[in-house]
Amino acid sequence: MKFRIDEKGWKGFSGNMGTALFVDGIAEIASNYEALRIGSLVRLVEVDDDGNELRIASPTQEMVETRGLSAEVVAYHKRGVEPEEGDTEASVVEDETPVVEVVRYTEDQLSALADKGGIAALREIAGPLGVKGTSIAGLIDEILALRGTQ
């Protein structure tokens, strides 16, 4: 693809810009991505072999040209269950991901829990968090550090 710089003060530019070598303001640019990258710096137009302007190569112009594209929004159904013909919006099932309540413990709460149930009680809290330890003080410190309450 051939491109020409069409920016005031840049017409006739000769030299490198990115991976493109411009000679008298015209360069062969291999990829559309590179043309868009250079087009974000200076006005760049694609030209045919005779120098006739084909299109503007800039990220802004790309957005204008593709603004009519859209994606179909499909109603979400329960995993593993295919929607049947005639399903309505009312038949759409929300995701059944369990909600996990985050509990932020203070050092005093964790110490009281350790006093009642020992290290085993702390390990019940630490296990799901991926925290391991062999001492009560170490587990309390790791839990507090992980929960950001220290």
Mean pLDDT: 79
Helix-strand string:
EEEEHEEHHH
Query: What's the multimeric state?
Result: single chain
Which outline best applies? elongated
Structural class: alpha+beta
Strand runs, count:
6
Give the count of structural domains: 2
- Sheet with the most strands, sense and barrel status: 4 strands, antiparallel
* Estimated radius of gyration: 31 Å
Biggest sheet, spatial arrangement of strands? 4-1-5-6
Helical segment tally?
4
- Residues in β-strands, percent: 5-15%
| Regions with little confidence, pLDDT below 50 for 5+ residues | none
Span between N and C termini?
Answer: 60 Å
Question: What is the helical fraction, as a range of percent?
Answer: 25-40%
Task: Please explain how this structure is put together.
33% of the residues lie in helices and 14% in strands. The protein has helices at 32-39, 59-65, 107-129, 136-147, and strands at residues 2-5, 15-17, 20-22, 26-28, 44-47, 53-56. The protein folds into 2 domains: 2-65, no CATH class; 107-147, no CATH class. It is an alpha+beta fold. It is elongated, with a radius of gyration of 31 Å. The chain starts with a strand and ends with a helix. The strands form 2 sheets. A 4-stranded antiparallel beta sheet has the order 4-1-5-6, with helices on one face. Strands 2-3 form a two-stranded antiparallel ribbon. Strand 2 and strand 3 (20-22) form a beta hairpin. It is built from 4 helices and 6 strands. The model has no long low-confidence stretch (mean pLDDT 79).
